[in-house]
Write a structure and sequence with these properties.
- The protein has 736 residues and is of the alpha/beta class.
- Helix content is 29%, strand content 14%.
- Strands 14, 15, 16, 17, 18, 19, 20, 21, 22 and 23 form a ten-stranded mixed β-sheet that branches.
- It is globular and about 80 Å long.
- 44% of the residues are buried.
- The model is unreliable at 75-93, 112-193, 220-231, 413-426, 557-561, 566-581, 702-707 and 709-736 (pLDDT under 50).
Length: 736
């Protein structure tokens, strides 16, 4: 069995949901004619019997006149020749937004050829449309950033593009029978000079932001928005979309009809006045004049569940979990039996069912956290976008947690430009956590920690954070590293005496999201004030422009400063430090697979949410780690992932992994799973590598149950003082 929950980009999961629903909608809608009218009459009779949804529903009409989509043929960095819909729908294990760059780019329809020269900037601008909370344009005119501002209908652009790859060289004509676009559009698929144009997006949502239906109008074939066309009037198409959204809602919930509907276009509102009452739905007296009926409107991050075998969505079929393990979702007995009998046996559900049942028993334990919002964020129906938006967490590092994507010109890393360093030079390394609004991190405690922290509760109390603070979602990375250094390494590798070391060199392998949140690792200087740390972020998923970069974070009492380095081989002088008053954190970057990294051996290797079986480079990196025989700890988002990592380690090196332990500093946000009900959390479990013994050597046994946390060691004596004591013991040195 294979599950990829917790590893894929959420925006792509969102795009897959849009694509799946739109494909079904167009297949059922068919071609224009009497057959469509007959189907609509059947739908109307069904809808009149549906229960009423008390929430207001909104039909949004979003035009796009300035952005087109160019399709490339792929390149060496891409996932392969031809990006098919199967990659997006999950039939292959892993896909990131960056994998689409060789195939998809956004171009300006107003700038012409100049848009192609600015491909990267335009692509970033197109991706911004994944949320309603980013600056947008309508009809080519800029509007101020607002949660009520319409987007340029670009969120579905990527699913539309992937649909074209699925349908072949003829594009999407199969799904849009009346949208004949001629040979020039087929040419557009092969050339960036003739981009595809999504002229208008029809979107049905409820007042809370849950998307219920979507329709894509290509190349202005439907005429201008709100005007009739020789080929088709917009009203019948919008009416068909409303019917399908009620009979088969994309978002969560059973079929239902709204108590009231409002429309975001005056002409279309008039056209629907005679149609909507036939469904037993009340149409608002006047059209909606703004983007949303509520200031807190946000697209919900909920997604429809899918069958583990056939990948059909819950809006297509009824899904039920396996009656024995309650972990895996199936659309019926046929898919369950097919998965049960899958060959070879160790990938069948018959083999995994009892193990998955054991993993499901962890659900309550992993949801036991001290925060006031725990019940909300650990629920299977957790709406992360609404949680973040309701707290104003839509800027800076918080965009890494959601479908928000930074706009053009926004530096992703602290050395992106000189101005982005100013927040750190001013003494506040956490300013990027929220660019607007109150500070999220309290001032540093005056006294260093008196003991070792083993829970969020203890850390929050010492740090002065309230249990309603969401900071644990970002701090899970430095606190997990702290827990490994102070608890797990002494427990599993006591011979290293790691707690008495004054400097540590740590390799952070396959670092993607962690590097995007690099400044939160400054908290390690607060928790380990006596240690000078060097974190070396390594992995080919890191931004190429950051290769060989180096900078230093330094702590002087309650203040912080950042200095960029000139090269990876240069360690900046620490002459500005007060005597014994501070330590620094060195950050280095290498954008290559770990097995190609050259340099000194580290004290420790750490990887977050590793997924050994999801990337081929691990088959080379794991043997490299075994040759170094350095302590290496990894986290996983589920117990299932830990088992799969152990199998990959055995295949790659002949070694294995230790028994996974729940991480007390795991993220409180439950990760969404499409085809299963298992509990997934970022950094949920921790294990370390158990290397294959050297010839004639013994095997290090995997540790048993974790012993009580070690008692805190006394602060180490400064090295200079120790050297003085040794000189006194030797007596005066003789001169020759």
């Amino acid at each position: 069995m294979e599950f990829v929950s917790g590893y894929r980009d959420e925006f792509l999961d969102f795009a897959a949901l849009l694509l799946g629903w739109f494909h079904k909608f167009m297949a059922e809608r068919g071609t224009m004619g009497t057959s469509l009218e007959g189907r609509l009459h059947q739908l109307e009779s069904q809808i009149r019997r549906l229960p009423q949804d008390p929430a207001l529903w909104v039909l949004h009409v979003l035009p796009n006149s300035s952005v087109g989509i160019s399709l490339g043929q792929g390149a060496e960095p891409g996932p392969g020749a031809g990006l098919g819909a199967s990659r997006l729908l999950g039939e292959e294990p892993l896909l990131h937004l960056r994998d689409l760059s060789p195939y998809v780019s956004f171009v300006s329809l107003e700038d012409g050829e100049e848009g192609e020269e600015e491909e990267d900037e335009e692509e970033n601008g197109g991706e911004n449309s994944s949320t309603e909370k980013v600056e947008a344009q309508e009809g080519g005119e800029p509007v101020p950033p607002s949660r009520e501002s319409p987007q340029e209908a670009k969120p579905p652009a990527q699913p539309e593009v992937i649909q074209q790859d699925k349908d072949g060289d003829d594009g999407c004509r199969e799904d849009r029978g009346e949208d004949e676009r001629g040979p020039e559009k087929r040419k557009g698929r092969r050339s960036e000079a003739v981009p595809l144009h999504l002229s208008c997006l029809l979107l049905v949502t409820d007042e809370h932001g849950t998307i219920l239906g979507i329709d894509l109008l290509m190349d202005g074939a439907q005429g201008s928005v709100g005007q009739s066309s020789a080929n088709e009037n917009l009203a019948p198409r919008a009416y068909a979309l409303l019917c399908h959204s009620m009979a088969c809602p994309m978002g969560s919930g059973d079929p239902r009809k709204p108590r009231q509907l409002t429309v975001g276009d005056a002409h279309l509102h008039r056209e629907l006045e005679s149609l909507v009452p036939r469904l037993g739905v009340k149409l608002a007296k006047i059209p909606m004049r703004t983007w949303g009926p509520r200031p807190g409107f946000t697209f919900a991050s909920l997604r429809a569940r899918t069958c583990h075998v056939c990948h059909k969505h819950s809006f297509e079929v009824k899904l039920t979990p396996c009656p024995q393990c309650s972990a895996v979702l199936y659309c019926g007995e046929a898919c369950l039996q097919a998965d049960w009998r899958r060959c070879p046996d160790d990938v069948s559900h018959r083999f995994w069912c009892p193990r998955l049942a054991t993993f499901m028993e962890r659900t309550g334990e992993l949801a036991t956290l001290p925060f006031t919002y725990t019940a909300e964020v650990t629920s299977e129906t957790f709406n992360k976008e609404a949680f973040l938006a309701s707290r104003g967490l839509t800027h800076g590092y918080w965009t890494q947690l959601s479908m928000l994507i930074p706009g053009p010109g926004t530096p992703k890393h602290p050395w992106g430009n000189t101005s982005s360093l100013s927040c750190f030079l001013s003494g506040d390394p956490y300013q990027l956590l929220q660019e607007n609004g109150p500070a999220l991190m309290p001032p540093l405690p005056l006294d260093p920690p008196k003991g070792l922290f083993g829970s969020w509760q203890d850390y929050y109390t010492w740090r002065g954070l309230g249990l309603d603070s969401p900071m644990a979602v970002l701090l899970t990375y430095p606190l997990t590293m702290y827990y490994i250094i102070t608890h797990l390494v002494p427990q599993s590798f006591p011979e290293l005496n790691i707690q008495n070391k004054q400097s540590l060199k740590i390799h952070v392998v396959e670092a993607g999201k962690e590097f995007d949140l690099v400044m939160v690792f400054w908290e390690l200087l607060v928790l380990l004030p006596h240690v000078a740390l060097e974190l070396h972020f390594v992995g080919d998923s890191l931004p190429p422009e950051s290769d060989q970069r180096h900078f230093t974070m330094q702590r002087d009492g309650p203040e912080a400063s950042v200095r960029p380095g000139s090269g990876v081989s240069t360690r900046l002088s620490s002459g500005t430090k007060e005597k014994g008053g501070c330590r620094d954190l060195q950050i280095r970057v290498s954008t290559r697979p770990y097995h190609l990294l050259q340099g000194p051996k580290p004290d420790l290797v750490i990887g977050f949410n590793s997924g050994f079986g999801l990337k081929d480079t691990w088959l080379s990196s794991l043997p490299r780690l075994q040759s170094l025989r350095v302590p290496a700890f990894f986290t996983e988002s589920s117990e299932y992932g830990c088992v799969m990592d152990d199998q990959t380690m055995a295949v790659a090196t002949g070694g294995g992994t230790s028994s996974p332990q729940p991480n007390p500093f795991r993220s409180p946000f439950r990760l969404r799973a499409a085809d299963n009900c298992m509990p997934w959390y970022c950094n949920a479990f921790i294990f370390h590598l158990v290397y294959k013994p050297l010839q004639g050597g013994g095997v290090r046994p995997a540790p048993g149950p974790a012993p009580p946390p070690p008692t805190p060691a006394a602060p180490p004596v400064p090295a200079r003082r120790r050297r003085g004591e040794k000189k006194a013991a030797r007596g005066p040195r003789r001169r020759r």
